Amino acid sequence: MSTARDPRPLTGEPLALDLLNTRWNQEGVTRDLLQDTEGLAVWLAANGLAGTHPADAGVLRRLREAREAIGAAVHGSPREAAPLVDAVLAHGRIRARLTADGPAEDPEFADPSWGPAWLAARDYLDLISRAPERIRGCAGGGCILHFFDTSRNGTRRWCSMAACGNRAKASRHYARSKEK
Prior knowledge:
This protein is of the alpha+beta class and about 180 residues long. Helix content is about 45%, strand content about 15%. The protein has helices spanning about 15-20, 35-45, 55-75, 80-90, 115-130, 160-180; strands at about 25, 30, 90-100, 100-110, 135, 145-150. The termini are far apart.
């Protein structure tokens, strides 16, 4: 397990969006946590997947493929993105079973290196079945982060009120003061 700190400005989103948020802008430069297996280890640890999936080149390659597929679905036409997401989902399935505690569902993968990618794609399906309109990109200029709006009235606009929200408010205030 990696002991490196997660450098991303937004963490804790649902798995599919957290995967998209492995790319972010910092001081005008796009950063990518998944540029190497060390960053992969950070992401796996942040999402509770480090103990069950190795941070190796195969997992990294498949996770990047899932990120592109989910990104295409979020930013583009669902019709065009569906084959990309489906291609990731084809590498796993849910096995339903009955346990002493009741019904259970476990993901299964013919090739375990598809595990994290499949879980992220499956999470995306869950998000769009619950509330697709609450999957949002940050409204902050130049920000490329995504979030699942859990606000009561569904009007969240920024990845973080402390970062992008504050910048937007300060910009509006500056513009108003210049008009006077």
